[in-house]
Amino acid sequence: MNKTLRRPVIAGNWKMNKTPAQTKALIEELKPLVEGADCEVVLCVPYIDLQAALDAAQGSNIKIGAENCHWAESGAFTGEVSALMLKDMGVPYVIIGHSERRQYFGETDISVRERTRAALDAGLKVILCVGELKEERLDDITAEVVRMQTKLALKDVTEAELENIIIAYEPVWAIGTGLTATPQQANEVNALIRSLIEELYGKNAAEKIVIQYGGSMNEVNAQELLACPDIDGGLIGGASLVAEKFAAVVAAASQ
Ligand code: PEP
């Protein structure tokens, strides 16, 4: 499979960090550091920061995303935000199925599928997260878990809609822990996801889909991970909160 067919995507996931004022400051600091990037640069930020992020990023190469969205267009879902609301305010990207949503907020493969469906229907680009728990890797069922999560999330997604899907392979044991999958471990699972896409949608779709790695990717290890044939970018948590660190990952993806 030809990696040059895919433009890398480096996306930050700020999680529950930064106020609107801090958002403006960080994006202003980041803009000159990433302006020449030869990859997509995305920042996924808390709902409360979205307007500040959109304003600060305007006219730059930084795209903004949300960290989740609901599956319904509107209704009695206190505390939730719909994909249509995000689209209406001009947000192009959304993360769906992050392991912290699955772990702490009861997100399931079925709700991930429904949220993905809603995001695509609203015209958003989805960063779909999949990945195994530490126990699942130790039990040697990583392949089964990742295949199942991916297949269930994409069940109703057509080949044309796949253009708006990025898959982020994020081994749960590597998220926020400082433990990174080795390039070989990460590439092996990314390749497995790509072969599932080929099985479901054909070779052309498999060659085009962007599959990121996420899990303690940072300014030190990014280059080696991003050099792997099936790793087309990164979903970056901790390192996305520091402009120089995130910019170094963007630089590594631009090589
Ligand atoms: C994430 O939040 O998706 C993530 C990969 O976090 P970290 O880079 O901090 O491990």
Structural class by helix and strand composition:
alpha/beta
Number of strands: 8
- Report how far apart the termini are: 19 Å
Largest sheet: 8 strands, parallel, barrel
The CATH class label is Alpha Beta
CATH topology: TIM Barrel
Rg is: 17 Å
Q: Would you identify the CATH H-level superfamily?
A: Aldolase class I
What would CATH call the architecture? Alpha-Beta Barrel
What is the beta-strand fraction? 15-25%
Q: Taking all residues together, what is the mean pLDDT? A: 97
String of helices and strands? EHEHEHEHHEHHEHHEHEH
Helices, by number, come to 11
**Overall number of structural domains:** 1
Q: Helical residue percent?
A: 40-55%
- Biggest sheet: strands side by side, in what order? 1-2-3-4-5-6-7-8
Shape: globular
| Heteromolecules bound | phosphoenolpyruvate
Low-confidence stretches: none
SSE topology:
Elements: E1 9-13, H1 20-34, E2 40-44, H2 50-57, E3 62-66, H3 83-88, E4 93-96, H4 99-104, H5 109-122, E5 125-130, H6 134-138, H7 142-153, E6 165-169, H8 183-201, H9 203-208, E7 210-214, H10 222-226, E8 233-236, H11 243-253
Parallel strand pairs: 1-2, 1-8, 2-3, 3-4, 4-5, 5-6, 6-7, 7-8
Helix pairs in contact: 1-2, 1-11, 7-8
The protein binds phosphoenolpyruvate.
Overview of the structural elements:
This protein is of the alpha/beta class and 255 residues long. It has one domain: TIM Barrel, CATH 3.20.20.70. Helix content is 42%, strand content 15%. The protein has helices at 20-34, 50-57, 83-88, 99-104, 109-122, 134-138, 142-153, 183-201, 203-208, 222-226, 243-253; strands spanning 9-13, 40-44, 62-66, 93-96, 125-130, 165-169, 210-214, 233-236. Strands 1-2-3-4-5-6-7-8 form an 8-stranded parallel barrel, surrounded by 5 helices. β2 (40-44), α2 and β3 (62-66) form a beta-alpha-beta unit. The longest helix has 19 residues, at 183-201. The mean pLDDT is 97. The structure holds phosphoenolpyruvate.
